Q: What sequence folds into this?
């Protein structure tokens, strides 16, 4: 953990609410990028990400105790997700539950799942691992994922790969599972 | 009537697209009861969603990371101020019980 973040965390442990409030600014500046990227994984919408993160920071200000023994960035991310982010993530779509044909438990799992090893990796580590896994894919599988990440629709990918939309959807599904097993392999090794 | 329910791979593709485009609520609302059951019972779907989320984080999160932190900080501060004004939720129950025990003798005093 870098010095800036360590000092910001120390400031949050002040018993006085006003001092903690002043300490929030360096903490937000040190962690905003990390937290918002993390939330974006689950919501994919920057407005919702900022709304959730606002409440997360206010919760941290109110009850920072969970963070007092945090020593690494990974631990910080894990703790913040477990104790501060997750409940707010679950709230985002809870109101919709009445109109959704998905059991409450599955809806929660879709928006705020249990943490796997992959999900606590840092952005840099994930990018590296993912790049390595992508290199091991077949050319067609890699191309489909790359195009999807560039923002192509399934139809556009199908046009590019000269195949059908159904085949592209199947290809993406199989590739995701393949990537998952490759990433699991990496986690087992490390 | 034609079977309009999507298969697991179609559902995953639509979920991935919705996550990428920031329209997960639309995806959720589009689910039929049968599709909800398909999702719930498919282990492969849940495994694949984990990768979809990671790809979403790696590929597209850069868009939000450039947001104005200073402006956002003022939102956080306003949230904190509003919480300072409000009584704490956790202590509300305690206060209520304290209040009850306080009011009882007060009422009896009045009667006396």
A:
């Amino acid at each position: 953990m870098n010095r800036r973040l360590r000092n910001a965390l120390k400031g949050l442990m002040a018993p006085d609410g006003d001092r903690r409030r002043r300490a929030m600014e360096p903490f937000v500046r040190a962690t905003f990028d990390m937290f918002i990227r993390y939330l974006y994984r689950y919501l994919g919408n920057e407005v919702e990400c900022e709304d959730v993160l606002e409440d997360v920071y206010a919760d941290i200000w109110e009850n920072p105790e969970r963070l007092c023994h945090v020593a690494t960035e990974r631990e910080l991310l894990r703790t913040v997700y477990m104790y501060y982010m997750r409940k707010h993530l679950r709230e985002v779509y809870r109101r919709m539950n009445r109109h959704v044909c998905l059991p409450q438990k599955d809806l929660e799992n879709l928006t705020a799942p249990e943490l796997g090893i992959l999900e606590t990796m840092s952005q840099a580590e994930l990018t590296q691992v993912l790049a390595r896994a992508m290199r091991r894919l077949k050319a067609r599988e890699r191309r489909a994922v790359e195009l999807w990440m560039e923002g192509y629709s399934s139809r556009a990918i199908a046009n590019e790969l000269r195949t059908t939309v159904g085949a592209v959807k199947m290809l993406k599904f199989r590739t995701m599972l393949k990537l998952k097993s490759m990433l699991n392999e990496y986690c087992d090794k490390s | 009537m034609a079977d309009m329910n999507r298969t697991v791979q179609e559902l995953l593709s639509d979920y991935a697209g919705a996550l990428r485009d920031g329209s997960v609520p639309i995806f959720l609302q589009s689910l039929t009861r049968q599709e909800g059951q398909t999702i719930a019972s498919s282990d492969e779907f849940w495994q694949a969603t984990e990768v979809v989320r990671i790809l979403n984080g790696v590929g597209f999160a850069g868009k939000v990371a450039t947001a104005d932190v200073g402006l956002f900080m003022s939102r956080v501060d306003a949230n904190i101020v509003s919480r300072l004004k409000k009584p704490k939720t956790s202590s509300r129950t305690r206060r209520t019980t304290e209040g009850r025990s306080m009011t009882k003798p007060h009422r009896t005093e009045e009667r006396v």
